[in-house]
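Figure 3 (text version): structure tokens given as input.
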């Protein structure tokens, strides 16, 4: 029996992830099941025309009827407020998923929801699931066994490895997220790094809510950030940080391993 569960950190879970987040599991136990979960539940829908390891040569649009390579316009201007959008016959189609030319896929095992945007220069390894309205921006790098939730953002020059983004979780700029879970509405400031590998050998051990020592039995674990956590620019979390809901990390701060209750402020 663990001393705290993932339910202490997250108010809600996307229904697509519900079988991964079994009641009562510790947060690191959710990560333990991530690889098998993705492989069991993924429904790949990458276009057959995409060549593995080769930059996409033309934009692709996914609609309920399948993938399109023509008959649409991609627009980004003052009218769209700087957002890249898909238009068909003069109408904006918000549920259209767009893969821009220049994106690279190293595996066909990628699943897209509705209204997903994959910008030029992004690299995605499978198996990976990307849910509705999520964005993967230019030069982002998503490694295998990642779950990107609804309206989440994997931003410019951000790397994600074996991690989960819940709804509206955003890592907009120059971030590293390894073996971590970002709660609903989490926002990482530019340059935030969630380190996942300690220098010393052995598994990551932390102090729990009552000061007791807990062994995660994981060699690699990054950070579990509860709902609405905010981090400042260039902040760093050490392996094994469990930060409660509505907490804040100041710019340039380093967070030591351990459990932190809700509304903690770290400077």
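Below: residues designed for each position.
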């Amino acid at each position: 029996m663990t001393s705290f569960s993932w339910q202490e950190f997250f108010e809600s879970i996307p229904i697509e992830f519900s079988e991964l987040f079994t009641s009562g599991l510790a947060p690191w136990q959710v990560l333990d099941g991530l690889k098998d979960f993705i492989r069991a539940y993924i429904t790949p829908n990458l276009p057959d025309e995409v060549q593995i390891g080769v930059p996409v040569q033309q934009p692709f649009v996914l609609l309920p009827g399948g993938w399109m390579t023509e008959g649409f316009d991609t627009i980004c201007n003052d009218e769209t407020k700087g957002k890249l959008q898909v238009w068909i016959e003069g109408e904006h189609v918000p549920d259209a998923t767009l893969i821009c030319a220049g994106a690279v896929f190293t595996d066909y095992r990628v699943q897209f929801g509705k209204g997903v945007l994959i910008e030029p220069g992004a690299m995605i390894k499978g198996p990976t699931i990307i849910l509705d309205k999520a964005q993967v921006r230019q030069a982002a790098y998503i490694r295998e066994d990642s779950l990107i939730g609804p309206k989440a953002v994997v931003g410019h020059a951000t790397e994600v490895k074996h991690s989960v983004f819940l709804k509206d979780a955003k890592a907009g700029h120059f971030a590293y997220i390894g073996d971590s879970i970002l709660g609903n509405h989490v926002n990482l400031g530019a340059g935030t790094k969630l380190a996942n590998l300690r220098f010393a050998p052995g598994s990551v051990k932390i102090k729990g809510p009552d000061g007791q020592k807990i062994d995660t039995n994981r060699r690699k674990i990054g950070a579990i950030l509860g709902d609405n956590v905010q981090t400042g620019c260039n902040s760093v979390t050490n392996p094994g940080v469990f930060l409660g809901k509505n907490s804040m990390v100041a710019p340039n701060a380093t967070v030591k391993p351990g459990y932190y209750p809700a509304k903690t402020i770290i400077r």
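The chain has one domain: 6-266.
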